[in-house]
């Protein structure tokens, strides 16, 4: 390995937690030990960096965490880290511990923090995409996305049972912030009558037509998936509008919410997190910085953080078309 200068790496999780974050921390720390580095856990993300909640990690700290949801390092969204003073405090604390590189596990906000920090203080940092939203470019999937989709689909299967028993129309809202990745997967995987995502406009009239056609086709249950973050509103607002046009429907709304963030990571997320954790440490040792480790077509790829956070990753047109074909 090159770049012998790195001897102490700090690892943190930040932003919304995601299943598989623990598996990623474990992989980062184990890889660090493998390469004879000292590894430090920074608790509560950037907030903990500012408050000096930094501890040297030992093997026992990461035992039996691979299979656990959440993040044992805890997470936070730090307002203070957005200020120069906050970042200076954070940098001073890293220096106190002699930490010379960082691995940041999180979504776009967390990686933006790592990018800024590198620009201001020159601390080499590698990001690992950890968010259920799957909204980062430079990786086919983010850690936690697969588990969140599984959780959403399992919940919708249960809703389907009661929807069918009562001939009801359900509007189910899923997470994803401004992105429709969870929604489109949940829609395909649960035979939804329609899937509404922020990236594509679906006029209410079209949804009404689709539901009318399904009534004609004697469908006994209808589940419409609504991604949060859409311009026409969430599941409750859409349900209100539909109620006015289709008063004969018995309509219910379920917001899946934070249950999509919890639970043991799926095998896919465990493996993804493990591969990215090791790759991030090896990337740092090879002199990489200000990049995010991701997997594209089953190969590890490092993408500049500035590109990964652009917010231009799009729901695949094929996925959208397939969801539409299967719901008519
Ligand atoms: O980014 C992950 C996510 O769960 C989004 O899907 C959601 O919009 C947001 O975080 C919720 O954030 P919080 O837990 O802070 O309410």
UniProtKB/TrEMBL annotation:
Top-rank EC class of the record's enzyme: transferase
Domain Phosphofructokinase: 8-283
InterPro entries reported in the protein's UniProt record: ATP_PFK_prok-type, PFKA_ATP_prok, Phosphofructokinase_CS, Phosphofructokinase_dom
GO CC field: 6-phosphofructokinase complex
Molecular-function annotations in GO: 6-phosphofructokinase activity; AMP binding; ATP binding; fructose-6-phosphate binding; identical protein binding; metal ion binding; monosaccharide binding
Sequence positions that bind ATP: 16, 77-78, 107-110
Names of the cofactor(s): Mg(2+)
Subunit structure: Homotetramer.
PANTHER family per UniProt: ATP-DEPENDENT 6-PHOSPHOFRUCTOKINASE, PHOSPHOFRUCTOKINASE
Record-stated family: Belongs to the phosphofructokinase type A (PFKA) family. ATP-dependent PFK group I subfamily. Prokaryotic clade 'B1' sub-subfamily.
Name of this protein: ATP-dependent 6-phosphofructokinase
Lineage: Bacteria, Pseudomonadati, Bacteroidota, Cytophagia, Cytophagales
């Amino acid at each position: 390995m090159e770049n012998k200068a790195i001897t102490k790496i700090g690892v943190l999780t930040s932003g919304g937690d995601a299943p598989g974050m623990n598996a990623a921390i474990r992989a980062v720390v184990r890889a660090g030990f493998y390469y004879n580095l000292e590894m430090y856990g920074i608790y509560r993300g950037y907030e903990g960096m500012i408050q000096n909640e930094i501890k040297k990690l030992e093997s026992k700290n990461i035992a039996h965490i691979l299979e656990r949801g959440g993040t044992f390092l805890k997470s936070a969204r730090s307002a203070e880290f957005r200020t120069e003073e906050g970042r200076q405090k954070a940098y001073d604390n890293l220096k106190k511990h002699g930490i010379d590189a960082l691995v940041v596990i999180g979504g776009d906000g967390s990686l933006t923090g790592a990018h800024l920090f590198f620009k201001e203080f020159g601390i080499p940092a590698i990001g690992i995409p950890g968010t259920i939203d799957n909204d980062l470019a430079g990786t086919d999937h983010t850690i936690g996305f697969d588990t969140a989709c599984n959780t959403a689909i399992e919940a919708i299967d249960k809703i389907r049972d009661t929807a069918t028993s009562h001939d009801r129309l359900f509007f189910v809202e899923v997470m994803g912030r401004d992105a429709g990745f969870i929604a489109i997967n949940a829609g395909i995987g649960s035979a939804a009558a329609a899937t509404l995502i922020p990236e594509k406009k679906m006029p209410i009239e079209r949804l009404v037509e689709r539901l009318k056609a399904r009534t004609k086709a004697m469908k006994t249950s209808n589940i419409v998936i609504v991604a949060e973050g859409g311009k026409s509103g969430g599941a409750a607002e859409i349900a209100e509008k539909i109620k006015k046009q289709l008063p004969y429907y018995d309509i219910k709304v379920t917001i899946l919410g934070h249950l999509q963030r919890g639970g043991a990571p799926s095998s896919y997320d465990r493996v993804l997190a493990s591969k990215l954790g090791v790759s991030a440490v090896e990337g740092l040792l090879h002199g990489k910085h200000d990049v995010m480790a991701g997997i594209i077509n089953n190969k590890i790829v490092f993408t500049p953080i500035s590109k990964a956070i652009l917010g231009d990753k799009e729901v695949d047109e094929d996925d959208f078309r397939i969801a539409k074909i299967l719901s008519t």
